[in-house]
Write a structure and sequence with these properties.
Blueprint: H1 7-55, H2 69-78, H3 87-93, H4 96-100
């Protein structure tokens, strides 16, 4: 929560607090603030215990951290420590480096870089040649 606050910012806040509240009222203000934080924490803990007791024994292992969407999805998809869908095996078998390299695609049907489903398809027109009237531009399935 406060990982991006540096020492200079904390020092500035302390100096401002001393200037605004004065050195005689600052200890009382800190004491009141800490008491308020303790009351809020005890209220939250009591509320959690009340919810757990009301849910009953079938939810005895319920954790409120499981309500975080990331944790919930991970737990529902992966189980507790199981891998029922085989996602870990798929993750281990995927070689991301081979997908991300800049090598051109292997030729398919004698043409490199594009996929054709019929062998008699004409080769695409070159990029620099103008189109004839009524001629449709070449369609690249990889570009769509």
């Amino acid at each position: 929560m406060f990982s991006d606050v540096g020492g200079l910012e904390i020092l500035t806040l302390i100096v401002m607090a001393i200037i605004i509240f004065g050195p005689d009222k600052l200890p009382k203000l800190i004491q009141d603030t800490m008491g308020f934080i303790r009351k809020i924490r005890s209220f939250a803990d009591t509320a959690k215990e009340d919810i757990r007791s009301e849910l009953g024994p079938e939810f005895k292992d319920f954790e409120f951290e499981d309500l975080n969407p990331k944790t919930f999805v991970r737990k529902q998809l992966m189980g507790d420590e199981q891998d029922p869908l085989g996602l870990k095996g798929m993750k281990d078998s995927l070689d991301i480096r081979s997908v991300l390299d800049d090598k051109p695609a292997a030729p398919v049907n004698g043409r490199a870089g594009s996929v054709g489903f019929d062998k008699a398809a004409p080769a695409p027109a070159s990029a620099g040649a103008p189109l004839q009237p009524g001629e449709r531009p070449p369609f690249d399935p990889d570009a769509t």
